Amino acid sequence: MGSVLQLTDVSVVRDGNRILDRVSWEVQPTDRWVILGPNGAGKTTLLQVVSASIHATEGESILLGETVGKVDVFDLRPRIGFASSALARRIPADESVLDVVLTAAYSVTGRWNENYEDVDIRRARRVLAEWKLDHLAERRFGNLSDGEQKRVQIARSVMTDPELLLLDEPAASLDLGAREELVQLLGNYARSSEAPAMVMVTHHVEEIPPGFTHALLIADARVRAAGPIEDVITEPHLSEAFGLPLMVERSDDGRFAARAA
Ligand SMILES: Nc1ncnc2c1ncn2[C@@H]1O[C@H](COP(=O)(O)OP(=O)(O)OP(=O)(O)O)[C@@H](O)[C@H]1O
């Protein structure tokens, strides 16, 4: 199978500013990428390009073998799973957890009159169990804890069996226990041969799940380093990208930690 995504010299210009500047990047089906960079670096903009949510101003984007601009994005988007708090805000608070996941099969938020097949309901329950949510299936989404809501967002994004899974800061705002639970679940998922290619944006190296294979470091709209995770998450690269001297450690289980030197 070919690349899951291939960007060549992609730029995004807004209000005369290059908020992505000549980004070239390739992701293979078995890759699990983390995107790291300071506030305002362009991480969310990059995810929007690779989710076919926005068009690049310049350059070529090939997503799942299709050249963006030559294909109907409505055919492409269902093949890409995307979890972000911006999307989660569109989920009605009184929706049941089961329905939040089930409605992904129809690319809608908020259950209306769709008739779901038994096969969809069985799959939704299986996905809920995978993300340790089966006991919450009948609860209302709005009443869940932050950690539970994050897991529901991810469960929803994998419901359609996507070929590419994008996660925008899945651990943001979580307490230590909820973060650790999520990192472990994401790590298990990343190591599964059934999982699609994954791209996760984060601000913190502590949130990188073991099993992630590659990293892309972005600062001031430009890629500073990209490649195998051990080559990219290094003291020199992180210090340069974040603009201060940093110490970086990696423990035997593959987890990273960073602090000012
Ligand atoms: N529609 C827009 N019009 C003008 N500027 C924009 C637009 N969208 C984003 N920007 C700017 O582009 C830059 C990159 O934004 P982006 O959200 O991609 O960064 P980020 O790395 O995700 O930041 P953060 O870590 O703070 O979430 C920021 O300076 C932002 O203000």
Automatic annotation (TrEMBL):
<protein>
    <submittedName>
        <fullName>ABC transporter ATP-binding protein</fullName>
    </submittedName>
</protein>
<dbReference type="InterPro" id="IPR027417">
    <property type="entry name" value="P-loop_NTPase"/>
</dbReference>
<dbReference type="GO" id="GO:0005524">
    <property type="term" value="F:ATP binding"/>
</dbReference>
<feature type="domain" description="ABC transporter">
    <location>
        <begin position="5"/>
        <end position="245"/>
    </location>
</feature>
<dbReference type="GO" id="GO:0016887">
    <property type="term" value="F:ATP hydrolysis activity"/>
</dbReference>
<dbReference type="InterPro" id="IPR050153">
    <property type="entry name" value="Metal_Ion_Import_ABC"/>
</dbReference>
<keyword id="KW-0067">ATP-binding</keyword>
<dbReference type="InterPro" id="IPR003593">
    <property type="entry name" value="AAA+_ATPase"/>
</dbReference>
<dbReference type="Pfam" id="PF00005">
    <property type="entry name" value="ABC_tran"/>
</dbReference>
<dbReference type="InterPro" id="IPR003439">
    <property type="entry name" value="ABC_transporter-like_ATP-bd"/>
</dbReference>
<keyword id="KW-0813">Transport</keyword>
<keyword id="KW-0547">Nucleotide-binding</keyword>
